Amino acid sequence: MKKCSFTEARFLLSTLDEIPPFYDKDKKVLPEVALVGRSNVGKSSLINHLLHRKKLAKVSAKPGKTQTINYFNVDNQLIIVDLPGYGYAARSQDMQLLWSASIDNYFQKRSSLSMIVLLLDSRREPTKEDQAVVEWAQHHKKPLLLIFTKSDTLGERERKINLEKALHLLPVEHTLSYSVKDPRSRQNLITTINKLLHGLAQ
Ligand code: GDP
């Protein structure tokens, strides 16, 4: 796979159903990069920022709005997968179960899943669900990137303290800070996704 420059993003579909993988014109399966995290972590904002599109992924005024799995084709080279946010307390028990089952199902069955991006709010401590994602990725030997979102909301000192605390609970090798207010964040993320998808060959 050649380096993906994230020039053109196209929304494909939104569903909780199991679907076949996506292919390129040479009939090769497109690798999927799945973004996951707690509701309100800033996932929709990051996806819109990364894919340079306004309102491509819905930024919720109310947390817990993203209910399905959204698939985006990027440059006909990879698929960005927006998984439902977890841990929204006001959601009913049944809904919470449905949510976690759909993430679980995607993780268990999706052979085209090539990389997981776990988002954590820079100001918050990791939850049990965050820990479960890390354990799953490590167990299945999937490349995992931990992103500290909304990094502009903290000063450098606080950011460092929170990062160290989080890494105690989430022992992850690859991390990145991200702010939608900082254009360098996007370029850093693109570089990191390419590196991890190429098996750190660069
Ligand atoms: P989602 O539920 O994970 O999709 O989260 P959203 O993208 O809807 O964002 C939740 C809230 O965080 C919104 O009010 C966003 O404007 C805000 N937000 C997201 N990213 C950033 C960021 O980088 N910096 C700041 N200051 N706020 C952010």
CATH architecture label name: 3-Layer(aba) Sandwich
Distance from first to last alpha carbon: 12 Å
The ligands found in this model are: guanosine-5'-diphosphate
Mean pLDDT: 89
Give the amount of beta strand, in percent: 15-25%
| Strand segment tally | 7
Total domain modules:
1
Structural class call reads: alpha/beta
Helix content: 25-40%
H/I helix tally: 5
CATH class: Alpha Beta
Outline the structure in words.
This protein has helices at residues 43-50, 93-109, 128-139, 156-169, 183-197; strands at 9-15, 32-37, 69-74, 78-82, 113-121, 144-149, 174-177. The protein is α/β, with parallel strands linked by helices and 202 residues long. It has a single domain, classed as P-loop containing nucleotide triphosphate hydrolases (Rossmann fold). A seven-stranded mixed beta sheet has the order 1-3-4-2-5-6-7, sandwiched between helices. Strand 6 (144-149), helix 4 and strand 7 form a beta-alpha-beta unit. The radius of gyration is 16 Å and the shape is globular. The two termini are 12 Å apart. It binds guanosine-5'-diphosphate. The site of guanosine-5'-diphosphate has 19 residues, from helix 1.
Characteristics of this structure?
202 residues, binds guanosine-5'-diphosphate, globular, 7 strands, Rossmann fold, alpha/beta, 21% strand
Record the SSE blueprint:
Blueprint: E1 9-15, E2 32-37, H1 43-50, E3 69-74, E4 78-82, H2 93-109, E5 113-121, H3 128-139, E6 144-149, H4 156-169, E7 174-177, H5 183-197
Parallel strand pairs: 2-4, 2-5, 5-6, 6-7
Antiparallel strand pairs: 1-3, 3-4
The chain binds guanosine-5'-diphosphate (GDP).
